[in-house]
Amino acid sequence: MERLAPEAVHAQAPAGLAALLVDAVDGGASVGFLAPLDPADAASWWRGVAEEAARGVRDVWAAHGPDGRVTGVVTLVRVGAANGRHRGEIARLLVHRSARGRGLGRRLLAAAEAHAAATGLRLLVLDTQTGSPAERLYRGAGWTPAGTIPDFAADPGGTLCATTLYYKRV
């Protein structure tokens, strides 16, 4: 697992990172995109992430399999408002379907949490589809549910689903 420099995010956007995002959406993860997700659109989104990383708004960690393929990623977004500089958001925690069930999601999450604490962030937030497998991960990692919003986001198939908000002090 490594923290990716903006140049590395940009370089891995068209293949590895885009493929991981497409896999997540194809697998039903509600991560902001509808299925089918065009790989070119996924790559474009990751190039935007690279630009955010270059501006210091978003940090990215990636895990690679033995073959060098991206198997997981997590991003940490910093709040820009003066009254929110103590908090950040965990966004787009993705683990390839072939790599799930081995603790990779927990390790990615822990890396982002540790970096957040080391860089002065004290509160982290995230949201996830209510009832998704991700909820088990977040609760097991000490995250606290703050509430549920009905019909907050559409899943990849376009069905509106509830979203649960979580927070964690680091």
Outline the structure in words.
The chain has 170 residues and is α+β, with helices and mostly antiparallel strands. It has one domain (2-120): Aminopeptidase (3-Layer(aba) Sandwich), CATH 3.40.630.30. The chain contains 4 helices and 7 strands. Strands 1-2-3-4-5-7-6 form a 7-stranded mixed β-sheet, sandwiched between helices. Helix 1 packs antiparallel against helix 2 (39-54). The longest helix is centred in the first third of the chain and has 21 residues, at 6-26. The mean pLDDT is 97.
Key terms:
170 residues; single chain; Aminopeptidase; alpha+beta; 7 strands
Overall structural class, as computed from helix and strand content, comes to: alpha+beta
The CATH homology group name:
Gcn5-related N-acetyltransferase (GNAT)
The biggest beta sheet, please?
7 strands, mixed
Helicity level, as a percent range?
25-40%
Summarize the structure.
By secondary structure, this protein is α+β, with helices and mostly antiparallel strands.
Topology:
Elements: E1 2-4, H1 6-26, H2 39-54, E2 58-64, E3 70-78, E4 87-95, H3 104-118, E5 123-129, H4 133-140, E6 144-154, E7 160-169
Parallel strand pairs: 4-5
Antiparallel strand pairs: 1-2, 2-3, 3-4, 5-7, 6-7
Helix pairs in contact: 1-2
